[in-house]
Please model this.
Amino acid sequence: MDRELKKTPLNRIHRESGARMIEFGGWEMPVQYSSLVEEHRAVRERAGLFDVSHMGECRLTGPESASVVNRLITNDSSSMAVGQILYSPMCNEKGGTVDDLIVYRFGPEDFLLIINASNREKDLAWITKHTAGFDVTVCDESDRWGQLALQGPRSPFILEALGVLNPAELAFFTFRPARISGQEVIISRSGYTGEDGFEIYCSAEALCDLWTEILGAGSSEGLLPCGLGARDTLRFEAALPLYGNELDEDISPLEAGLATFVKLDGEDFIGREALGEQKKAGLTRKLVGLEMIGKGIPRHGYSLFDSEGREIGRVTTGYAAPTVGKRLALALVEAAYTEPGTKISVVIRNKQAEAEVCGKRFYRKKYKR
Amino acid sequence: MNIPGELKYTREHEWVKVEEDILTIGITDFAQKELGDIVYVELPETDEVLKREEAFSTIESVKTASDIFMPVSGTIVEVNEDLEDNSAYINEDPYGSWIVKVKVDDEAGLNELMSAEEYKEFCQKEEK
Model:
């Protein structure tokens, strides 16, 4: 493995468990421990534990932190209570997406932004640039925090077995402090799998103990350690976007179907004007679901064509979906071809195969709202 | 690593059972481990005529697709249709999950098949 890759504190434990390691966003991460499909199924049916410590954490504090956060993101954070979390895209002036992130409100003037591992440096530079001159302190806390995701229907029971008080009562998209095996942690009712679950934040030093404790407590529930492979198939079935696939600097959140998280009528934010114009003019392309009719599996980057052989879009993510049991894709396609039932050609390794536009709700999410 | 002694092997990690001019072909334990969970198998049509080294099937795992190649020029006489809905059988039982049966049209390539011993050495070199 490349020596320059960054490693989370759990790296040795992953290797010793026999995990297959890959490079992701400059990090050496486990892609699977046992089998991708087994890990995916474990999360849907029981529970899975993910090391997501490679994600970045950016802390904003100070008198103008609230208004600065609201300026950076497209969603409206002004009415966030302390203890609440919020999902939002963060856009550039053209309305393209710099990153998608989660905001944790720690205090009236205290916010933690959870940013994608692949965008750590970019986001920090962007946030620093766009907060200059405001009364706010920006701090890269990425190395301080460890992060684990415990996901699946049995996850509240596993937390209970670990001594966490009434985890099932933690409301969706809120967080609170807790203690797990004597370690101070923060748990939020959130995740990236479409299942009920929790994200657990701890100090980097506490990670190894916590990982081992949680796996131990969860073994009677059938908890499995899960890698980035299952993480991607799970979020794909739930039609959750992955930055770099469904979102990037040239794809707007409106094109990606995230209009709910873009508050054009609220306070000003970076990209608001461009997004407002895009909405007014009508989207020229949109993210849709595709179901294969012909042979093969549609994969990221594959080109899409109309019946005249004109290129009309591309696959952003595609898989033989393990739970749904179909060969599916998310695809960015010209607006004229986005009606459900529209037939499109996918080129799969130099051969044309037919696919049909369908809704993105491949898998019905099981969030506890 | 499971490598049955009575079969022959190719450098592309296929196993071949030779019975007169009919070859039964599948992929080895080494191959199915490399691929991981197999989620889709694209099969040829019966009576399809293919040349040596042409791809007769594609096996897709969650993350990748792998072409499977003809060890000889021949005609497809039977395909294992069970694999259409049960691609995971190949992971569970690689030597019990044949993919195609081929009638040999040109013997060139048959003598390049490896014995179990030769394949074992070949795999050991690949792993380094």
The radius of gyration of chain A is 21 Å.
